[in-house]
Amino acid sequence: MAEGDLARVPTVGVEEEFLLTDPGTGAPAPENARVAAAARAAGIDLQLELTRCQVETRTGVHSRIDDLLAELRATRRRVAECAAAHDARLLAVAVPPTVPDGYPVTDTPRYQRIANTFGMLAHEQGLCGCHVHVAVPDRVRAVQVSNHVRPWLPVLLALTANSAVYRGSETGYASWRSILWRRWPSAGPPPYFASLADFDATVSMMFASGSILDKKMVYWDVRPSESFPTVEIRVSDIPATAAESALLAALIRGIVTMGLRSIARGEPAPSVSGEVLRAAYWNAAHTGLDGHLLHPIHGGVVPHCELLGDLLRRIEPALRDCGDDAFVTTAIAGLRERGNGARRQLRAIRTRHEVTDVVAELEHATLEGC
């Protein structure tokens, strides 16, 4: 891709949530304040999450996926070093694989208010996801693009599933995080919104009802960002490797780019019902890469690889124009060969039936390539 072409593709950024764990047991370690302070002293903007066992990183804004991947890898390595300095390990995993002693809530006024309002939902959180931001011209088109992204959320969830082991046992799901996360009243697949006014009215209703305390608690898996001029896609588990996070970002940018082009041509997004999308979500969370998924647009149950292939064909022009096509092809081939986080976890626990093997595999994956 020529330098002049970079200005014509949407920029992208990524937020990754990580679990801090005890180096000996692998259990969640409530050390986010100390690790974040060390990271900030090292020039890293590390964010505190709802529980004291979690931290969040944020990349800069990128046009090239290769540059994004380089930053993801460098940041994982540097934050892992900060964690190690405070007797903790950084783990890219969506739920704790070991038995936790609990999830103490981070001591900030907002998080304490959430905990007091939502009770055990907050105290049993400990869930780590990955959020991808893609630049859009305005909030009107952010809502319109959300409608175009909705049908493809399940295939992205299946691709990045990384929570097959929880509390020392197989969950029976590739993404147990997805199942737990949707207990929140504002989480999961968003409705199909007719307009920005429709979106804003729904958010106002949720605020009035008490199901959210502020606009940051709009946890839908696609939403206009409250902080940046972007559409934010939040469906994914935290991927096991930085390369998988970069792959997710490239695929999402492709979907958003094609959505923007459809909007410019006046083409409506597929109107997938909430019931169909919820069924497709459950299917994706249950089987991940290794099973069949419900095709949310034309119905029918197809192998994950077939649904992913359909998505790739649809967004191929955008991948090519963004310069991401070669990276995506290579990254998907590598993912199929090595497996995503869920497949890695299941391989590890089925070898000796020891959760310590799962933790060791995830520790390796977290810094793979870093």
Automatic annotation (TrEMBL):
Enzyme superclass (EC): ligase
Query: Gene3D superfamilies given for it?
Result: 3.30.590.20
Catalyses: L-cysteine + L-glutamate + ATP = gamma-L-glutamyl-L-cysteine + ADP + phosphate + H(+)
Picking any one GO molecular function of the record gives: glutamate-cysteine ligase activity
Q: Which Pfam families match?
A: GCS2 (PF04107)
E.C. no: 6.3.2.2
The record's keywords, sorted A to Z, are: ATP-binding, Ligase, Nucleotide-binding
Q: Which residues form a coiled coil?
A: none
Q: Which family does it belong to?
A: Belongs to the glutamate--cysteine ligase type 2 family. YbdK subfamily.
Q: What does this protein do?
A: ATP-dependent carboxylate-amine ligase which exhibits weak glutamate--cysteine ligase activity.
Q: What is this protein called?
A: Putative glutamate--cysteine ligase 2
